[in-house]
């Protein structure tokens, strides 16, 4: 399903700040023999406290969507 279960080591939290995640969507679609339009997707977001952050990326070959989940 594409989830990253252990992005950080156990007990580690991100300090407040601006962060960016970059997804190699070109490779993802290439591996499936699909020609995609976006070779990579960069998501920038702010961490303001030590709560849980869920940042989904929904993709298809010609578009993507992201939001702050719960």
Structural account:
With 70 residues, the chain is mainly beta. It has one domain. Helix content is 10%, strand content 31%. The protein has one helix and four strands. It has one helix spanning 25-31; strands at residues 17-23, 41-47, 57-60, 63-66. The strands form two sheets. Strands 1-2 form a two-stranded antiparallel sheet. A two-stranded antiparallel ribbon has the order 3-4. A hairpin with a 2-residue loop joins strand 3 (57-60) and strand 4 (63-66). The longest helix has 7 residues, at 25-31. The chain is elongated and about 40 Å long.
Radius of gyration: 14 Å
What is the general shape? elongated
SSE order, as H and E?
Answer: EHEEE
Domain tally: 1
Q: Tell me the fraction of residues in β-strands, as a range.
A: 25-35%
Return the average pLDDT rounded to an integer. 93
In terms of per-residue confidence, which ranges show pLDDT below 50 for 5 or more consecutive residues? none
* Class based on secondary structure composition and strand pairing: mainly beta
Taking the sheet with the most strands, its summary is: 2 strands, antiparallel
First-last Cα distance: 17 Å
Output the strand order for the largest sheet: 1-2
């Amino acid at each position: 399903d594409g989830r990253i279960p252990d992005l950080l080591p156990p007990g580690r939290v991100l300090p407040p700040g601006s962060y960016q995640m970059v997804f190699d969507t070109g490779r993802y679609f290439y591996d499936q023999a699909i020609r995609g339009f976006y070779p990579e997707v960069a998501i920038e977001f702010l961490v303001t406290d030590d709560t849980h952050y869920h940042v989904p990326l929904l993709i298809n070959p010609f578009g993507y969507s992201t939001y702050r989940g719960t």
